[in-house]
Specification:
The chain has 266 residues and is an alpha+beta fold. It folds into two domains: 74 residues, Glutaredoxin (3-Layer(aba) Sandwich), CATH 3.40.30.10; 180 residues, Glutathione S-transferase Yfyf (Class Pi), Chain A, domain 2 (Up-down Bundle), CATH 1.20.1050.10. It is 60% helix and 7% strand. The protein has 13 helices and four strands. A four-stranded mixed β-sheet has the order 2-1-3-4, with helices on one face. The protein is globular, with a radius of gyration of 18 Å. The termini are far apart.
Length: 266
């Protein structure tokens, strides 16, 4: 039996759901609001990091979205989601590393500087510090703090913009060689990148790839896959969509960051 603890719009949960959907697997859903329930002692026994997703398979607990993707691909071998060619496999690993080490922190900064800013911004500094101190992963708390207190124009906001720009550059270069990110077939590389593209789109930042037709074409193919509807669209609640729709357009700050980075590269 497969059970998944996940959040509606969590990018990491989306990776797990996409993998489950591509494999055509049935699973029991334990959806979490992530408004403190992830710090409940019972959940922390499953996932001491206090984050989602958490996969439970026949009583065995697997955490970390990238690990979950590979676990599912190892146990349920059809269709395979890792490329067969060694160089394509290397490309897939590099994409996952980019997501985990650079793009995921960037996503936290972008999100908490915009759509998720209000709950923390409306607290006093003392209250905000106390709330952020509860999280087991303090590095993520620092990303959130900087995003809320300093915004997208901060050094961390500029670094986050660079990370997303690198992702888009990699996608564009990959699509010049074929339809998917790590070879001729859809793979874990495409799964790993998809949720962060979802987040950029929800943050009204699709203009970041206006000059990258390869990215636009890849994104159209991604959204046409049945797994996208099953793993992404199905879980977007009206209140989540409204929260992103009403935010102030972050493009002004992000475009400034992109322009500044372009000048540095000249």
């Amino acid at each position: 039996m497969l059970e998944l603890y996940h959040g509606y719009t969590s990018v990491c949960a989306q990776k797990a759901r996409l993998t489950l959907a591509e494999k055509g697997l049935e699973w029991a859903s334990h959806v979490m609001d992530l408004n403190g329930d992830q710090l409940d002692p019972a959940y922390l026994k499953l996932n001491p990091n206090g984050v989602v997703p958490t996969l439970v398979h026949n009583g065995h607990v697997i955490v970390e979205s990238t690990v979950i993707m590979h676990y599912l691909d190892d146990i349920f071998t059809e269709p395979p989601l890792m490329p067969r060619d060694p160089l394509d496999r290397t490309r897939a690993h590099l994409f996952k590393k980019l997501m985990d080490e650079y793009v995921h922190p960037a996503c936290i900064v972008f999100t908490f500087a915009t759509a998720n800013r209000a709950p923390l911004a409306n607290l006093s500094k003392e209250q905000r510090d106390a709330q952020l101190a509860k999280a087991p992963l303090q590095r993520q708390s620092e990303y959130k703090r900087a995003a809320v207190e300093e915004g997208l124009g901060s050094p961390m906001g500029k670094e986050a913009t660079k990370s997303f720009a690198k992702l888009l550059k990699w996608i564009q270069e990959s699509i010049e060689r074929g339809p998917w990110l790590a070879g001729p077939e859809y793979s874990v590389a495409d799964i790993a990148a998809t949720p962060y593209m979802v987040r950029l789109e929800m943050l009204k930042l699709s203009r970041m790839w206006d000059d990258k037709p390869g990215v636009a074409g890849w994104w159209k193919r991604i959204k046409a896959r049945p797994s996208y509807q099953t793993a992404i669209t199905k879980w977007l609640r009206s209140e989540d969509i409204a929260r992103y729709e009403k935010l102030n357009d972050p493009w002004t700050e992000v475009s400034k960051n992109l322009a500044a980075e372009a000048r540095v590269g000249q």
